[in-house]
Fold Hsp20/alpha crystallin family protein.
Amino acid sequence: MKNLQETMKQLQKASESLSKLSLDHEHPWKALSQMNQILDANFWDHLTNLTTTTASHATQQAGEIIPAVSKQKKKAKEQQPMIVSRSNSNGFPAMDIFQTEHLVILCCELPGFARDSLEVTLTEQRTLELKGMIKKPDHNRSCILQERAYGAFYRLIELPVSVSAKGMKAQYEDGILELYLPRDGTPKERKTTFRAKL
């Protein structure tokens, strides 16, 4: 408990120091240097300690047993694709990304979106922006329960490999938008914006 109190004091001290920084918009490097000094390794150690202690306390209260984590050396020969699960992500639209030898495929849940509103921007062949509009139903005025979201949506996605906008295909069926982007390791496209024809 004493260790936790010390951690909280250190984090509060760092927070107060950050709030006192003055930012000169013409020369921001001095403030960045000061922030770097405040957010040093010691700060991150305290933050990790706080997170670990809180998680441990919450688990004990729930009566769960935390399994021991064993550290194993990774085998260099066995490389399996890494799957990033974001089931608790607040990103909208929800999506899955697949990678094959020649393609990167994005599958997005977009029920009821206006097909002509979809705008896709590819920057530096690795960052994809999706913009569009989800239409409101015609009978929206008589709504007594609303759980679905309407209006403009925006999602920024970092792709696992470089892709090309040339040859991109899009299809929309049963509320699922699929984008097929050819993999391309040669850097040539800085920014490409296009409207997908669905």
User: Anything to note?
Assistant: The helical segments are 2-19, 29-38, 41-62. The longest strand covers residues 127-134.
